[in-house]
C-alpha cells in the first residue's frame, strides 16, 4: 500500500459546526505535482468508487483504529471530495477532532494502490487509475513515503522478529501494541512453513497492507 499525505489547509477542509465531529474537504486534488513526484489525473478514482467489496475506512494514521465513517466520497472537477464524521464517544476520535480544531493535527492521507500509471522519469508518475484502500487523518508532518522507505531499508538488515518489532516501534508508525500485534500475525503466517524467527523483511512488507486495512 502506498500513502499520499496532504495538508488540511491545502485541501479546504472545513468543520460543519452544526454537526459535532463532521468535516468536509478534499482528500486529494487533481493536477500539479505533489511532494511524492506524482500527478493524479481526473478520473483516477472513478472505478474504485463504483466497484467496491468493502467500505472506505476512516482511520487514524493509517495503522491506527477506525475512528469514524465517510459520509460521502466522490470525484469532482477538483479532486476527491469527502465528508467524514468522527465517532461520538470514541476517545481517540474525540481527541483527533479536538486536535484538528486546534490545528495540532493537520493532514489527510489516502492509502492506495496505483493500478494504471505512466512513468515520467526522475521519480515522477502520472496516476491514471487508483484503487482506494482507506483515507486517514494523520499527524505526521514529514514525507510519509520517505518514512516507509526508511523502515523497509531497516527491515532488510533485521535478523529476528524481535529486532523487526523494535524497528517498527521506533520508526514512529506503530505503537508498542501495534508492532507486537503485527509481529504476532507474521508468526501466525509463518507457522507450519518455517521457523518463526527466520521470517524476513518481505513477510513484514506483505503484512503492512493487511494490518493497515484490517
Question: What does it look like?
Answer:
The protein has 214 residues and is α+β, with helices and mostly antiparallel strands. The protein has two domains: 140 residues, no CATH class; 68 residues. Helix content is 32%, strand content 33%. Strand 2 and strand 3 form a beta hairpin. The chain is globular and about 50 Å long.
Keywords:
single chain, 214 residues, nine-stranded mixed beta sheet, disordered C terminus, 2 domains, 6 helices, alpha+beta
Q: pLDDT average, as an integer?
A: 75
Low-confidence stretches: 141-149, 193-199, 209-214
Provide the helix percentage. Answer: 25-40%
The rounded distance between the terminal residues' Cα atoms is 13 Å
Structural class: alpha+beta
Inertia-based shape:
globular
Helix and strand pattern: EEEEHEEEHEEHHHH
Percentage of residues in DSSP E strands = 25-35%
- For the CA atoms, what is the radius of gyration? 18 Å
Count of the domains? 2
Q: Report the strand count.
A: 9
What is the helix tally? 6
Largest sheet descriptor: 9 strands, mixed
Amino acid at each position: 500500500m502506498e500513502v499520499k499525505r496532504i495538508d488540511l489547509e491545502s485541501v479546504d477542509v472545513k468543520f460543519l459546526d452544526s454537526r459535532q465531529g463532521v468535516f468536509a474537504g478534499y482528500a486529494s486534488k487533481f493536477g500539479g505535482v505533489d511532494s511524492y513526484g506524482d500527478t493524479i489525473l481526473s478520473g483516477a478514482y472513478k472505478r474504485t468508487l463504483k466497484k467496491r467489496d468493502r467500505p472506505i475506512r476512516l482511520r487514524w494514521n493509517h495503522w491506527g483504529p477506525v475512528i469514524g465513517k465517510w459520509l460521502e466520497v466522490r470525484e469532482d472537477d477538483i479532486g476527491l471530495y469527502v465528508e467524514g464524521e468522527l465517532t461520538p464517544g470514541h476517545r481517540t476520535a474525540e481527541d483527533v477532532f479536538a486536535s484538528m480544531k486546534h490545528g495540532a493535527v493537520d493532514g489527510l492521507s489516502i492509502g492506495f494502490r496505483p493500478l494504471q500509471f505512466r512513468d515520467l522519469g526522475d521519480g515522477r508518475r502520472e496516476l491514471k487509475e487508483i484503487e482506494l484502500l482507506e483515507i486517514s487523518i494523520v499527524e505526521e508532518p514529514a514525507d510519509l513515503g520517505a518514512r516507509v522507505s526508511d523502515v523497509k531499508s531497516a527491515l532488510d538488515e533485521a535478523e529476528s522478529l524481535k529486532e523487526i518489532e523494535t524497528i517498527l516501534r521506533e520508526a514512529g508508525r506503530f505503537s508498542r501494541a501495534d508492532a507486537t500485534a503485527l509481529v504476532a500475525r507474521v508468526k501466525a503466517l509463518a507457522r507450519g512453513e518455517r521457523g518463526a524467527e527466520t521470517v524476513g523483511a518481505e513477510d513484514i512488507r506483505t503484512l503492512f497492507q493487511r494490518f493497515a486495512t484490517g
